[in-house]
Each structure stands twice: as C-alpha cells, then as structure tokens.
Amino acid sequence: MSQHKISPDSPIGIFDSGIGGLTVVKAVQACLPAERIIYFGDTARVPYGPKSQVTIRRYAREDTEILLKHQPKMIIVACNTVSALALDVVEQTAGDIPVIGVLKAGAELAARRTRSGKIGVIGTQATILSNAYACAINEENREFEVVSKACPLFVPLAEEGFIDHPATRLVAEEYLSGIAGSEIDTLVLGCTHYPILRRVIEQITGPGISIIDSAEAVAGKARELLSAQGMLNPGTGKALPHLMVSDLPQKFRELYRLFMGTELPDVELVGI
Amino acid sequence: MSQHKISPDSPIGIFDSGIGGLTVVKAVQACLPAERIIYFGDTARVPYGPKSQVTIRRYAREDTEILLKHQPKMIIVACNTVSALALDVVEQTAGDIPVIGVLKAGAELAARRTRSGKIGVIGTQATILSNAYACAINEENREFEVVSKACPLFVPLAEEGFIDHPATRLVAEEYLSGIAGSEIDTLVLGCTHYPILRRVIEQITGPGISIIDSAEAVAGKARELLSAQGMLNPGTGKALPHLMVSDLPQKFRELYRLFMGTELPDVELVGI
C-alpha cells in the first residue's frame, strides 16, 4: 500500500457512508480552493450509523481501498461513524498516506474553543454510543466534561429538505433541550448532515453556545497538515470534485444541490 | 432451484430489507399460527427504498437465495420496494416455489374494499415513484383512481419510537392532508413500517377512510394459497420464527420489541 507516487498535485481523497460528506468537500473547497478532490460516497450501503462495529470496519477498509486507487496525498474520513469506530482500519489500509478524521478535528477545535470546559456533542446513535468524541476531547484535556446526545432523526429530516419545518423544530427541541440546559458553552455537530440543520439547532441552543462544525474543523486541519509537509497544491485552478458513488439514488441530484448549493457534475458509479 | 423437497411441514420464508417485515411475520403468525416461519432481514443494506433499481434487483436475488437454502414451501416478499421493482427477480430465482408480495396483496384487498373507486397509497420514495401500486390496483379494475404520496420520514420516526410524538403528527399532517382531502375511501399502508404509526395516520385520515395494512393482506393471501394447494401445516405447535439478519444493529432488540411486542429470540447472522 506504500507504492503511491504522491506529489503536491495529487488529489485529496474524501469518503463518507453517503452524501453527507459533501459538507466536508464544500468546506475543503472553501479552505483549499486549489486542491483536487476525489470523493467516494458509499450510497449503496448508507447509513453506517445503526450498523454493527464489525460491519462498519469492513466497509471502512473497502472505502479506503477505492480511494487508494486514485493515489491521494491525504485521506479525509468525512464519516463520523467510521472516524469513531474504524479510523485505525483506514490508517492501516492507507499505509503511509496521512489520514485525518472529522471526529478528532472537531474534538480538537471544540477543546480550543471552550471556556467553561463543558462541551456538548450530537451525532448518530453509533457515534454517540461509541463515546469517541468524549474520549477525543478528554485526550485534549481530561478536565473537560462532555454531554452527548444521539439525534437519529436529523439525517432523514435534512435529506427530506425539512430545513425550516415546524416538525424539525419539535424534534430538535426534544433532542436538544436537555443538552442546551446543561451549561455547555460549545456544541459539536458530530455528523456531516447536521450543518444543513444548523440554523434550527442554533435557534434552540441560543447565542451563548458556540457551534463547532466538524467539516470546517477537518478542512482547517487538512490545510495545516499539508502546509507543514510542503504538500499544498501550488496551482490556482478550481476543479470540480471527482465524485464516485456505489449507487445512484433517485434523489441524488436534489441532495447534491441541497448539500453543495450547485448543480451535480458527472458522477462515477463504482462497484463494491 | 427446483430441487426442493417441500411438504406442508416446510417453513414459510419471508424477507425484507430490514426489520420492517416483522409486521408481516406478526400478521402471518396471527393468521397461520401452526406455520414455521423463516425470516431474513437485510439489516446490513437497509434501506432499499432510496436505492437504484439495479441495486434493488441484485439484493432481491441474493435475499431469495438465502431463504431457498432453508427449503421454504412459499416465499413472501415483505419488502414493498422489492415487491414493486423486483418481484420477477424473486420469482425467477425461486423456480417453482410460489412467491407472493405485499404489494399485490395490498392492492387486491384495496380493490375489494373500496366503494368509491378512489384509493390512496402511501409508501417510500422508490415504491411510490415506481407507480407499482397504481398499476396493481388498475389490474384489478382499470376504472379505479389512485392517489399516491411518498412519506420518507415515517420509517425513521417509527424506528425512533416517536409513535405518539407531536412531531410525528406534524409530519403526518404534511404528508397526508392532501391525500385525505382527495375523496379517497381507502388508504393502503404501502410500507411495512407504517402499521407502527397506524393510529396517528388514522387520526388524520378520519373514520371515513378504510386503512389497508399490506402485512395483514399478504398473510390472508398466504393462507388462501396454502389452503388451495393442500399445503397448510397440520401441526398445532406454535414455534418462534427463525430469524436471520445480515447485520446486528445496536437497536435490534428494542426494534424487535417495538415491531413484535415480544422479547427477541435467538438470531442468526448471515454473510452477504
């Protein structure tokens, strides 16, 4: 796995269980406009969140192998579930290609941002049950207190486009009222879909709580790392991302527009 | 595929994309208590609804092959998506084993039940876009008018246990107000999860609209067919279903209780 010829012109590989990782693509494009991006979304097997750890680890290896065929200079794990339960599998599979995950990036940024030392984390069932955000935050500072809450309906609500719907507000109140009342000053959006619902989340948490978008956090970390390694792309071009998916769902075009705010470019269908 | 030794004592095979088909297991148990049931839920690849037809057809063949290893005397397709888009694949794979699907059974019962000839159908995006319920109903009577509506949030709401939640009511109002006001007298629950939300659905549709549960419909059809073929199990025992899944999700025990109202028996994990 270490036979890759990598250079500053090599692409950044990003994968996710589905289309949610497009929020990471968008954040990387904003932060590193000259970089080429290759994205794999495992749309045939989405969602990973409710699945078992054994299955998630197998999928993580297969997803990494798909990206490695394109000789990336870095792999970003946009999937919080994989970051929580299988980052080591991605690292082993990637060999000497650096791997960064949304989870650790979000945890680090939250630890830098908090003043009270009390941090909230929301995510899928699997991410929250894994306790991985709490562990990663406590690696930064073991005094910090983490309050977590799984919000399983946020992904389907975002994908249904119920962005401003009163039902979404009721669900968000149900999920967030406890955590918002627990004196946290920082809330990590521990799922790539959640930035889509950021406004309704902020309405409930209020101005006193700083929102950490893990997609933005991981994009910032990618820039730091590439810069330190002298691997930033020197070009000035702005290429469309190379998109690969394992299935082309009927709503894909609509979802791409929802996540990226632009029209869908060409998409490559890959077998898994 | 036609080498099976089948007898009245052979099991009824039932499969679904996930755990939703347990509503069919429950209906078959109620209707045919002496029958042995073997169930496969493709929990590693659920949901099928948003996936492409090519992928759904491949999954349907693989799911059928898993059941065939247990020499069933009949296969019930509990998955509306597969019934809509890939029933022919199941029939081809099953050879001379009879195959019945929830979709046709629900359509037939709705066609018998309606008086006004105006029938509503709700289901997943894929089921509704396929137009398969409308086609099946019009095969019964081409004068009947069908009004359809996709309700993608009902599955996650049911699985989250938001049975009586005000958010579920708001979502149901959003989805059903148009269809309930369109003079239908019959509404088909075209997704195996929807019986879980039957009460909130009935509150919106009101007493003038007769609800057709496709799970009950397919169980009734299975009894008719087995009886006509002299293949009813003569036993009086009441066995637990033999459950097979392709993944063991963390919430499986809880979901089983939600769907079946009883504790989870042993489960076999099968590779796909």
Keywords, separated by commas or semicolons:
homodimer; 272 residues; alpha/beta; six-stranded parallel β-sheet; four-stranded parallel β-sheet; 12 helices; 10 strands; globular
Describe the model:
- The structure is a homodimer of 272-residue chains.
- Chain A has 272 residues and is of the alpha/beta class.
- In chain A, 44% of the residues lie in helices and 16% in strands.
- Chain A contains twelve helices and ten strands.
- Chain A has helices at 22-31, 53-68, 80-85, 87-94, 102-113, 125-130, 132-140, 154-159, 166-180, 198-205, 214-228, 252-260, and strands at residues 12-16, 37-41, 74-77, 99-101, 118-123, 145-150, 186-189, 210-213, 242-245, 267-269.
- A six-stranded parallel sheet of chain A has the order 4-3-1-2-9-10, with helices on both faces. A four-stranded parallel sheet of chain A has the order 6-5-7-8, sandwiched between helices.
- Chain A is globular.
- Chain A binds chain B through residues 43-45, 50-52, 55, 125-126, 129, 152-153, 155-157, 159-160, 162, 165-168, 170-171, 174, 247-251, and chain B through 43-45, 50-52, 55, 125-126, 129, 152-153, 155-157, 159-160, 162, 165-168, 170-171, 174, 247-251.
Q: Layout of SSEs?
A:
2 copies of one chain form a homodimer.
Chain A: E1 12-16, H1 22-31, E2 37-41, H2 53-68, E3 74-77, H3 80-85, H4 87-94, E4 99-101, H5 102-113, E5 118-123, H6 125-130, H7 132-140, E6 145-150, H8 154-159, H9 166-180, E7 186-189, H10 198-205, E8 210-213, H11 214-228, E9 242-245, H12 252-260, E10 267-269
Parallel strand pairs in A: 1-2, 1-3, 2-9, 3-4, 5-6, 5-7, 7-8, 9-10
Helix pairs in contact in A: 1-11, 2-4, 5-7, 5-11, 9-10
